[in-house]
Amino acid sequence: MEPKKNPNVDPRRNSLLYFQLGLAAIAALSYLAIELKTYEKDLSGLTQKVDNSFLDEDVPVTMQLNTPPPPPPPPPPAPEVLKIVEDKKEIKEVEIQSTETNQKEEVVKAEKVVVAKEEEPDVDVPFAIIEDVPLFPGCENVAKEKRKDCFQEKIQAHIRKNFSYPEAAIDAGHQGKVFVSFVIEKDGSVSIANMRAPYPTLEKEAQRIMSKLPKMVPGKQRGKPVRMTMSIPITFKLDQ
User: Which residues, in sequence order, are CB contacts of 45 under 8 Å at separation 6+?
Assistant: First the structure.
């Protein structure tokens, strides 16, 4: 079944009428464009007045005075005449002695030269690599290969013997490890190089313990006394 179309709504129904109206509008616009005229404006009534009054003014005539040129500068003074005076002073000739030496003089000087021995700088030798460790009192009769073990045992025994937990640290609950770096000098004395502690109360006690170390026989490297460095931890722990 085909759909029925309404002839009143068909867009092509008045197409011819619209085409004719368009042609008529175009023809009218073309006619108006052809018949359009333009007129030139008449500028004859417009005049510009020129002011020529300045031509009638009298220009004063001025006379230029001829002034004389300035006088030339005076000539420079004549140079003074230099008199040559003979030098009557006697000049003494100075003999320059030769700095060259013969073979005999060089031998004599060489005999007087004293060769200065270079002093070896102080070198801190760590405990782990020193050849001869310092002798802690009581380790003198121990075999050389066991002196390091004896030294460490004596150090630990000294710490246990002199250890005392500070009351201020107990009241404050301070505990931890204090790392002490010390040096055994060439004369066997002990000096503290550095300390690192979690609390000042523990550091002070560790310093007191290490200051009581006895004087020892100094360590040796290549047969000569040297400074030996060592670091040990001291543990402070409260019983819970």
Answer: none
pLDDT tens digit string along 156-212?
999 999 999 999 999 999 999 999 999 999 999 999 999 999 999 999 999 999 999
The 3-state DSSP class for residue 2 equals coil
Q: Max Cα separation, the chain?
A: 157
Instruction: Report the C-alpha gap between 182 and 190 in whole angstroms.
Output: 7
Can you tell me the distance from the alpha carbon of 72 to that of 63, in angstroms, rounded to the nearest whole number? 27
Contacts for 189 with CB less than 8 Å, ≥ 6 apart: 215
For the record, the structure tokens of 189 come out as: 């004395």
The phi and psi torsions of 194 (rounded to 5 degrees) equal -160, 150
Structure tokens at 154: 């004596």
DSSP letter at 161?
H
